[in-house]
Amino acid sequence: MCDCSREDLLDEFEAASNTDIPLPIPEPAADEFEKIWSRIQEERAESADTTEQAGSEEPGEDKVIRVRFGWKRLAAIGLIACLIAGSGSIVAVGRKSYFFRERKDEIGSNGVVFNNDMNKVAVNGEEEAYALIMDKLEIKPLRLGFVPSEMSFEEMQMEDGVAYMSFRYKDDFLYFIQSKYNTEVSHNYKSEEENVTYNKWLKEDLTIRKEFHKDNKVTIETSIIIEGAFYRLVGTVEYELFQQMAEELTF
After folding, report:
1. Is 250 helix (H, G, I), strand (E, B) or coil?
2. Order of strands across the sheet with 204-212?
3. pLDDT digits over 204-229, tens only?
4. Is 182 helix (H, G, I), strand (E, B) or coil?
């Protein structure tokens, strides 16, 4: 896999760590790192078994040690694993940062930015998140009555009386934001297209707003105030899916 010398390989490592040029690495599969790490562990185990067998042979016998995995190959695969893991993190963080970069003052109180991991709350799924909202914010949590099969709960963050729930759907994100209502969380959303849909559970019309970005991404948002609580659903999922989720919001 790698025919270069130790010095050349170290030079490559140093050059890669110092470059600011983005690498053209596609987004990896979710379990790519685990697969590579599993291969490394298997090769290490096989190498150790071979060495033990050679050491247990009687003196005078011909010893044949086959090392399938040299240090250069191990180092190269380790580098690939690091790059893959790093590229995945860059993609994920990049999507979050992009989504809130121009609208942070509209998301929650006091300009809260969602991608601050220091505010992350340990919850095991959205049901625990709803329970925490009721306990900590003392408001009735609004729930997603419809969740697509491919959508997964990612994480929850809380700051200054605002709860943020993050969901992942394929390559898109959806955020569900809830708080006590006050003038600081009232929003001035920059919409370029608006449509109205009816939620039969809440018996309310919901205005769904679209904001178009230069990279052809579309941000979709709707919000409502009920009994002194503020609720917002915002994401980059396709419009028909977002509309169905908005229509199925329920207590």
Report:
1. strand
2. 120-121, 151-159, 162-169, 172-180, 229-235, 218-226, 204-212, 193-199
3. 999 999 988 877 788 999 999 998 89
4. coil
Of 58, 54, 82, 76, nearest in space to 2 by CA: 76
Over the stretch 70-116, which tens digit does the pLDDT of each residue have?
Answer: 555 555 555 555 555 454 433 333 333 333 433 433 433 333 345 55
**Single-letter residue type at 95:** R
CA dist 33 and 104 (Å) reads 33
Burial class, 167, CB count within 10 angstroms (exposed 0-12 / middle 13-18 / buried 19+):
buried
Bridge partners (DSSP) listed for residue 211: 219
Strands 143-144, 204-212: pairing is unpaired
pTM of the complete model beyond 0.85: no
Q: How far apart are CA 234 and CA 99, in angstroms?
A: 10
Cα 190 to Cα 219: distance, rounded to the nearest angstrom: 10
The CATH number of domain 102-250, selected from 2.40.70, 3.40.50, 3.40.1000, 3.30.2320: 3.40.1000
Residue range(s) occupied by CATH 3.40.1000 in the chain: 102-250
